[in-house]
Amino acid sequence: MRVQMRISEQIDSRVRRALLRIAAGQMIQAPITNFLQLGRRIESIVLPVELLQQFKSSDFPTPARISNPLAQQLRQIIRGAYERPMETGKHSEAVQTLRNLTMQLACRSSDDYAQDTCHWADGAPLNLRYSKILCSTMKSMLEWVERGLLAYHESFYRGNIDLMQSILSLGLSAATILAEEDPRESGRRKVIDVAYAKVDVYISWCGSSNSSFLFRTRGTAICFGINELTPAVIQVLIAADKLEKDLVQMAVEDSVNSDDGGKSIIQEMTPYEAEAVIVDLVKSWIKTRVDRLQEWVDRTLQQEVWSPKANRQGFAPSAVEVLRTIDETLEAFFLLPIPMHPDLLPGLMSALDRCLQDYILKAKSGCGSRSSFLPALPPLTRCRGGSKLNGVFKKKDRSNISQRRTSMQNTTASNDSYSITQLCVRVNSFHYIRKDLEVLEKRTITHLKSNGIREGSFVNGSRKNFERSLVACVEGIQQVCEATAYKLVFHELSHVLWDGLYVTGASSSRIEPFLQELEQNLEIIAETVQDNTIRTRLITNIMRASFEGFLLVLLAGGPCRSFVLEDSSIIQEDFQFLMDLFWSNGDGLPIDLIGKHSTIVKGVLPLFSSDTSSLVEKYKSLMIDGNNGSSTKSRLALPPTTDQWGPIEPNTILRVLCHRDDKMATTFLKKNYNLPKKL
Question: Which stretches make up the MHD1 domain (predicted)?
């Protein structure tokens, strides 16, 4: 302060010493008066007079600069005083007279009682007119306080919120002082009256001008410094909505007596619409969670190995994780303290349903299907006619098997990315997801009931939202079971079925090798697939593929296979062995299920025990009745391959004739179709 007032250390030291002498009563002996005595109280000292008596004008150099016009005016006054200077010595008569007059004014009392306290600045000639200065100061303080209170959202925050109480007290005190000094007041107002009036004004101003602040902070997440929606943020928004309604109500009540009834104020207060903001934030929260889940699905499926040893149940860890994430997302959703759970739940479940459906579709993609594992049917050929191989496979015909094996490998190479057990793990995973979705739906209904929502208002919608995943699970189980069966029969066991069965003759290459390896694989599948229903479905598909493979060997096995009438009993017996494997003395598939899927094979096998002439006549009759032949031509038209084998299907009978090793069949095929003996 001394530096700011440009007071030198020398002057400061001189003033301090003078004040000490005044306080201690260490004055040089002067004429004794009632006002100058040793050890008197500090309240009875008139400080300006004492200082005037202690100093001379020469003790203080002129502090003002020449450029200051006020300082120049002061110097003119001082020069005028120099012309008739007043003697200010300690024993000066003029000083003593000034002292007596000053003390009389300072010690005056309105009730004629003597006082011990001197009001040295009260009244002329040393009156500083402090009232005007004080009022001006109080007005400035009050304006500053009101600016801060009206802009409270900018002036105060959590770190300085305690300061609001002090500032409010300061403002009320300043308002009280100004009210006391206001000449328009008809009397001194009580402090509590001024406080009530000012508080009402502050509330009215805040209600009419600052309610729209909520609207200006529409970027709620940014305003509160958060990056993710949490229950705490929802509570803040709900509180903001309640605050907005309260402020609007206050503004309406304060403006009810205005000309327009407060309509102009209400129009200026743009509503924040907290509920709409909450809905938008929850939707953004849902999108963020779903996007994370989708990214996780894409990343995890690329790393999933589908190992049956991953857990005891035999399903993929990724299936467990994706369902756990969905469950946690729903749990977090219901923890949000919002009133619109039923309205937003369908959107959330639909998005989660799409993610789960995508997981299932990607998990089953690349597993193959029935058509991808079935071998391409070779062109029709005829046997040599009576030259039975008798168990010896001619060297020149081995190229046919090699070509057929190469064709088979090319057909299944693109689908050989997973083993049989890995495909079984997929089936287990789909079944696990389907079962857990039912539990998840029940848990969701429980959450909604706990929020006081009736089951009828949401159960239909929730089931519809999860329907895509449930349908994908059912289709996935069906597709992968079928792919597993046909992969096993036509790819894993092709060396003992397609490339081995009846190749060197019916009696020398029977079905036992195929049955042995098939039984081993069935045991592995039974250990891998835990659920009885799914295991039965998978083994049923394997049985159906085995029956179809057996028929393909008989009807489309190529020129390396030929049969005579005597081979029909061997074929019948081998097929019975195949059915017995799946029956397994009552421990396997039900006998009626086996009979249902063996109907086609049982209908075709009697054709191999029919003589050639009856087959030819039957074939001609079917072709003529079906308008497949022409009466003007000697040759019959080639029937189309329908992939529907049967005892009265022309293409089936024609293929039996193609594999019939006798002269009559060879002559018939040569005459009507000119079929070659080899490829």
Answer: 234-377
At residue 407, does pLDDT exceed 50?
A: no
CA distance 334 to 354: 20
Per-residue pLDDT, 92: 74
Place of tokens 């009931």: 449
| 378-to-173, 248, 370, 502 alpha-carbon distances in Å | 108, 86, 18, 16
> Which residues have CB under 8 Å from 596's CB, separation 6+?
none
Residues in the chain: 679
Q: What are phi and psi of 117, to 5 degrees?
A: -105, 135
Nearest to 431, CA basis, from 310, 538, 293, 325:
538
Q: What is the pLDDT of residues 149-182, one digit of tens each?
A: 877 778 888 888 888 888 888 888 888 888 877 7
What is the three-class DSSP state of 493? coil
Residue pair 444/330 in contact by the 8 Å Cβ criterion: yes
Torsional class of 386: left (φ above 0), alpha (ψ -120 to 50), beta (otherwise): left
The one-letter code for the residue type at 283 is: K
Q: Please name the residues in contact with 640: beta carbons below 8 A apart, sequence gap of 6 or more.
A: 651
State the DSSP H helix or E strand holding residue 169, giving kind and residue range, or none if neither.
Answer: helix 163-181
pLDDT at residue 629 above 90?
no
* pLDDT tens by residue, 306-345: 988 887 878 899 999 999 999 999 999 988 888 888 888 8
Strand partners, 33: 36
* Residues 464-506: tens digit of each pLDDT: 568 899 999 999 999 999 999 999 999 999 999 999 999 988 9
Long-range contacts (CB closer than 8 Å, 24 or more residues apart) made by 282-285? 282/229, 282/333, 282/336, 282/338, 282/340, 282/344, 283/344, 283/347, 284/229, 285/228, 285/229, 285/336
User: d(Cα 557, Cα 550) in Å, to the nearest integer?
Assistant: 10
Q: How many CB atoms lie within 10 A of CB 84?
A: 6
Cβ atoms 29, 89 nearer than 8 A: no
The DSSP bridge partners found for residue 36 are: 33
Instruction: Write down the residue that tokens 């089953």 correspond to.
Output: 364
Would you call 68 helix, strand, or coil by DSSP?
coil
Average pLDDT, the chain: 79
**pTM score:** 0.64
Phi-psi region of 366 (alpha: psi -120 to 50; beta: other; left: phi over 0): left
